[in-house]
Amino acid sequence: MATDRRTVLADAAIGVLAEAGIRGLTHRAVDRAANLPAGTTSAYYRTRQALLTALVRRLVALDQAELQAIGDRTPVPRNAEELVAGIAAFVQQRLTGDGRRRSLARFACAIESVHHPELREILVPRQNTARRAVRDFLAAQGVSDAEDRTVTLLTCVDGLVFDRLVGGGSVSDQEIRGLVVAALREPAPAGTARGGRRRGDVGQST
């Protein structure tokens, strides 16, 4: 029963953080959000830091369960367009409904973790079937550093989600396609600058 109550409080805390921001995350606010008597949250989480840590652990658990489920029901993409479609569906989840609420809370926690390293350790990205599906696709396409490219690609996707949470709007397939194309692109030979010129050739027209 205690575990269930802790989960209820952590879920309520996620909602409070998403709606009121980090300053609005108080024991009393969580009590109200969970529709529980005043003092309930402080009885389970004595300090604000304990409450925040529980919130982050619950947030990561929910995210991992979601990503695991996505990976379990979605096969490894057969081509780039299937990967684009899969990422687009994932982004839509992160920008609407409960996914939006958790996204807002997640980014607030990420900023807070700058001052609390113990939170950063909890928030470190973990392996799951969805993440492996992206890596396996890139590897199947001949990308030699598939793991690193996966990290970069998913970090960029997170950036798009953050941008739309702050500025509004949706993420277009074209934006996602650009990230996928970049992830599949072969790196330029060492010493080659953009545009095909080698370092030291700047200013030369022929």
Protein architecture, described:
This protein is mostly helical and 206 residues long. It contains ten helices and no strands. It has helices at residues 2-20, 27-33, 40-44, 48-73, 80-95, 97-112, 117-123, 129-140, 146-167, 173-184. Residues 194-206 have low confidence and may be disordered.
Number of strands: 0
User: What is the makeup of the main sheet?
Assistant: none
Order of helices and strands, N to C?
HHHHHHHHHH
Unreliable spans are: 194-206
Quick summary:
This protein has 206 residues and is mainly α.
Give a quick set of tags describing it.
mainly alpha; 10 helices; 206 residues
What is the secondary structure topology, with strand pairs?
Layout: H1 2-20, H2 27-33, H3 40-44, H4 48-73, H5 80-95, H6 97-112, H7 117-123, H8 129-140, H9 146-167, H10 173-184
Helix pairs in contact: 1-2, 1-4, 1-6, 4-6, 4-7, 4-8, 5-6, 5-9, 5-10, 8-9, 9-10
